[in-house]
Amino acid sequence: MKSRVFVTRVIPEKGLEMLRQHADIEVWQEPLPPPYQILIEKTRGRDGLLCLLTDRIDAGFIAALGPQVKVISQMAVGVDNIDVAAATARGIPVGNTPGVLTDTTADFAWALLMAAARRVVEGDRFTRSGRWKTWGPIDFLGPDISGATLGIIGFGRIGQGMAKRARGFDMRILYFDRTRKPEAEREYGATFTGLDDLLRESDFVSLHTDLSPKTYHLMNDVRLGKMKQGGILINTARGPVVDPAALYRALSSRSIACAALDVTEPEPIDRNDPLLSLDNIIITPHIASASHQTRTRMATMAAANLIAGLKGEPLPNCVNPQVYSMIAK
Ligand code: GLV
Predict the structure, then answer these.
(1) In whole numbers, what is the pLDDT of the chain averaged over residues?
(2) Which fold has domain 102-283?
């Protein structure tokens, strides 16, 4: 008998095709994610789940799954929406999609950096509103990117992707991470610094950490206050790494010049959020990995993880490989 799987949204067709060959799949067809209770009902009796970062896979959800469940496969690299410890305690492997979205996400973070510095979005709004009357010698000035200092917080794959791009712009590159990365330092000409020094010296600060209790509201009043006046903050990591109220204060008082966010707290951002009243912020709807090629790669990778899990094989990309030693014991 074929395994039974629930897929929480329509994903690129190649991934669904792979799944259909190995399992009976039900795909949630709505544009919005399944509500929590429905997610539980749909998954409870099934062997596997393919989920997205918009699904809340918490301890209650995991406890509600039947004994037949073999795998949870997330089509994303970040898994902060999943209680991985609870899955591990039940011996359920959890898959993710690292590596395939590195360049696409770094490209987008770079697009935000350039758009923020050179006021691309403001300029577009200005043009559309009919206010463009002449070439203005002191209008729409922003900082140079070439030769500026870029501070990268979180020097994993995507953070290093930013450094790679920054080299082409002759930037000075600083980074902060839990661990020093000497090889990447050499490869990208990046300098390891303390967080405070990075904030003080960088013209651009780009966030590339995961979301954990340690990084929750990492950019708070104190840290935003340490950034240069005229500094620009880019966040393509996870929304809650930045305290939105503190960011509002920093932007509205012009203690920093601008922010560009692809992720917010909460997601989606409330229409009445004060941040949306500001001119010096760009907010995009969590689309950094949204290229045709990358979303297809993420879907096929998530499908491959799911299929391996259904067969009882190790997932090619597993965030809790300790489940295998638990099973062996
Ligand atoms: C996207 O944000 C991801 O984690 O893949």
Answers:
(1) 97
(2) Rossmann fold (3.40.50)
